[in-house]
Amino acid sequence: MNFFQLEVFLHVVEHGSFTKAGDRIGLTQSGVSHNITALETEIGVTLLKRDRKGITLTTAGEQVIPHMRAIAANLAHIEQKIAAVNGMEIGKITIGSFPSFTARYIPRLFSIFKEKYPNTDLLIHEGGYEEILTWIEEGTVDIGFAAKPVKNVEFIPLLTDPLSAVVYEGHPLSGKTSLNLEDFVDQPFIMLRSGCETLIEDRFLEAKIKPKISYDIKDNQTVLSMVAGKLGITIMPELALPEKPERIKSLPLNPELSREIGLVMKSAKHLSPVAKEFTKVVQDHFIG
């Protein structure tokens, strides 16, 4: 087994396609297939299942992929250490982020980092909090952005994001300066299922109020469109709200409810040199 075969295998798993993996590393589909076959022949087990539905890991593949990712990460660390000794900053960082944070902050953070370290590659995987924490656990991403509560990871706090009530223009509650949980009783409620629902549900539970949930929606924009369409009202993070809202109005909650957003990683001590530099850039941006 050589490192290139390992790299090809990891790209196939990441992209779920021989063609996409080949495009990423400059191989034809047959070239990718040849390297995977050679790897499986050498180690004596089948790692991937191929059918019309796509490509998935076999049981053996699931067992060995954490170790293969660890080998790839260790080699990347070695390359980056050597580059640092030679006065160069190179490497690749894979980052997990959730949609509202991606839209608001990732372009600026990537721009700052690339200006400082132009020879680095920044890759992003976007998903919900649980997906990001799973990617951290599996080694799919080096670091991520998520909100508390988190388990089995290190958490570096960056910012506090208040949650707001969102109603449509002309709603009977739209004239109020703030809303308390009692205002939601008997109102059609659209629950945003993108990670903050635990905070919202816990707050309702503490107040012994059961919201009338009419819809469960994962996408921020869909929830906003449904509120604007007068299908219900919601609670969502301010970070997810548009800068120039149309046909909707956001109102603060009383008492305030907020989420704490931060960097998550397995271990800051064991991050690659370039990933450590990225965390420094992020902390400088938010904390100073």
UniProtKB/TrEMBL annotation:
Describe the location of the HTH lysR-type domain by residue ranges. 1-58
Offer a single GO CC term for the protein. Answer: cytosol
Pfam name, any one: LysR_substrate
Q: Which InterPro entries does the UniProt record give?
A: HTH-type_LysR_regulators (IPR050950), LysR_HTH_N (IPR000847), LysR_subst-bd (IPR005119), WH-like_DNA-bd_sf (IPR036388), WH_DNA-bd_sf (IPR036390)
Species per Swiss-Prot/TrEMBL record? Peribacillus simplex
Q: What is this protein called?
A: LysR family transcriptional regulator
SUPFAM superfamilies hit by this protein? Periplasmic binding protein-like II, Winged helix' DNA-binding domain
Gene Ontology molecular function, alphabetical: DNA binding; DNA-binding transcription factor activity
Q: What is the lineage of its organism?
A: Bacteria, Bacillati, Bacillota, Bacilli, Bacillales
Claim: Transmembrane is one of the keywords in the record: no
Family the entry assigns:
Belongs to the LysR transcriptional regulatory family.
Q: Which Gene3D superfamilies match?
A: 3.40.190.290, Winged helix-like DNA-binding domain superfamily/Winged helix DNA-binding domain (1.10.10.10)
Q: Please provide the record's keywords in A-Z order.
A: DNA-binding, Transcription, Transcription regulation
